[in-house]
Specification:
Length: 518
């Protein structure tokens, strides 16, 4: 049983399920968290982005730790830490505390995630790796599909805190199976840690993500935004120069000499930028504009998430037969088409206008996850599998943070510009619309909410609600359009890879296998 490839896949899949559940249950719980803790849109985004920020900063380092000290050891440490920090999120009881422990979740997630792929890369023979990665993606899809429904039931019938407690029993199963079946693997020639590289990469990614997140508050043309973004680019440039000169780099630049790996990394960033930013606000649309409960919203997301379950393994088969380049192109094209399809939504759209586009997006996501894993991790030497897994996961999370920050900023900026006109068009008197506009109406509209006017006539309350929802949907249309165009551009970029790229063969210099320690 110990070391059996399919049991190994089962163990890492449980760890992945825990992280996948966390992402989707948080999305469903966000509106309830906002009401319970009285959070602003910015704070609500930080509950998501604090996790993504630390995760993005730590993934490459987490993969490096696995390559050096053992992927089994670092993976299981991540599982335990993720569960304990999840428990703390539910117990802390304040917005600041939730954000802090979400960041700690990200730190342990950065140990867990890259080593799942690295363990598979070191365990499975090359001819079965695509199938294993497809099942790995399918496990992610199962967690994504189950998350909104399980999370919705817990939010509606227990509390929003319980969605974080859910990680504890899942982690217990992952830990028990992992202790029994995982075989230790690591780089057989461990090098000294590249401390300057760790510092520069961490500082550069932190500055970039922090600047993107806060640009919505500071303004994109503000001195603070420019300072963080330009400074982070300079620091990342210094990181590249250092990595080319040190004997044992944290992130070997030679990996990016492979054109497919480089393009795959960039495409993943762009693809997830378009997807994550839009899905954050689609949940608000379902719960706050349509008034669905958390469970009802989770059920209505099933066409997207359930399609992902099927499309990820099928994407592995398609990658094997048609190549990762064409599969990635197809996935991104489907995501782009689905997001543009959703621009037909309005505040009163029937569910029949939603689910077909969700199916298209889910199919595209499954294809993209599998093909990007093949392109990035499959093109790296086995000894660098942890680093390559970290690169892919970093690209995913960085794209997610950029999506919520950039597309969220686009949405709120658009709402600010149209809110007054939408309120007046809905029948709200200009004086009332002006008053609302100066008392946090943009903040409420950014969540798809409308203020309750105490003592106001029913007709006035209805006009305000209609106008606020119209402004939110108008902003959502703009974000969907930008996200769809970005996804289609990424699809074209995927075609720039050389024909036949992907992990089809490894030169002799790249066939070194990691030492396996029982």
């Amino acid at each position: 049983m110990r070391g059996h490839p399919w049991w190994v896949l089962t163990s890492v899949a449980f760890g992945l399920v825990m992280v996948g559940l966390d992402g989707t249950v948080v999305a469903v719980a966000n509106p309830v968290i906002a009401r319970d803790l009285h959070t602003t849109v910015s704070q609500l985004q930080w509950i998501t982005n604090a996790y993504l920020l630390v995760l993005a900063v730590g993934l490459v380092f987490g993969g490096k730790l696995g390559d050096r000290f053992g992927r089994r050891k670092i993976f299981l440490t991540g599982v335990v830490g993720f569960a304990l920090s999840s428990l703390a999120v539910g117990l802390v009881g304040t917005t600041g505390g939730v954000i802090a422990f979400r960041a700690l979740q990200g730190a342990f997630g950065s140990l867990l995630m890259p080593n799942t792929l690295a363990i598979l890369r070191a365990t499975f023979p090359k001819e079965k790796l695509n199938m294993a990665i497809g099942i790995w993606g399918g496990a992610s899809g199962v967690s994504v599909a189950a998350g909104p429904i399980v999370g919705g039931v817990l939010v509606q019938n227990v509390s929003w805190e319980s969605v974080f407690y859910l990680n504890v029993p899942v982690a217990a199963v992952a830990l028990a199976i992992g202790l029994l079946v995982l075989v230790e693997s690591r780089d057989e020639r461990p090098a000294r840690f590249d401390l300057p590289g760790v510092g520069l990469l961490g500082a550069g990614l932190f500055g970039l993500v922090f600047g993107l997140i806060n640009a919505q508050t500071w303004g994109w043309a503000s001195a603070e935004t420019f300072a963080f973004l330009i400074g982070s680019i300079a620091v990342l440039g210094a990181f590249v120069l250092v990595e080319q000169r040190v004997a044992s780099p944290l992130l070997p630049m030679r990996l990016f000499a492979n054109r497919s790996l480089s393009i795959g990394t960039l495409v993943v960033v762009i693809g997830f930028l378009s997807l994550f930013g839009v899905l954050f606000f689609l949940t608000l649309y379902l719960e706050n504009v349509h008034g669905y409960s958390a469970v009802q919203a989770g059920v209505r997301l099933l066409p997207l998430t359930a399609t992902l379950i099927a499309s990820a393994p099928l994407g592995g088969v398609l990658t094997e037969r048609a190549g990762a380049r064409l599969t990635m192109f197809l996935g991104l094209a489907l995501i782009g088409a689905g997001l543009l399809w959703l621009t037909a939504l309005h505040a009163g759209s029937a569910y029949g206008s939603l689910w077909p586009a969700f199916v298209v997006v889910g199919a595209g996501l499954g294809c993209m996850i599998t093909s990007s894993s093949e392109i990035i991790v499959g093109n790296a030497p086995v000894a660098d599998a942890g680093i390559a897994g970290g690169v892919q996961s970093t690209a995913t999370q960085l794209g997610g943070v950029m999506g919520t920050a950039i597309l969220g900023s686009i949405l709120t900026t658009h709402i600010s510009s149209v809110l007054f006109s939408r309120l007046v068009s809905a029948g709200t008197p200009a004086t009332v619309a002006t008053s609302l506009d100066s008392h946090g109406a943009v903040e409420l509209a950014g969540q798809g909410l409308a203020p309750h006017l105490s003592g106001a006539p029913a007709a006035l309350q209805a006009s305000v609600t209609t106008g606020m929802h119209a402004a939110f949907v108008s902003g959502l249309h703009t974000s969907l359009t930008v996200g769809g165009i970005i996804a289609l551009a990424a699809a074209l970029l995927a075609l720039a890879a050389r024909p036949g790229s992907g992990a089809r063969s490894e030169p002799a210099a790249r066939t070194e296998r990691a030492r396996v320690v029982a």
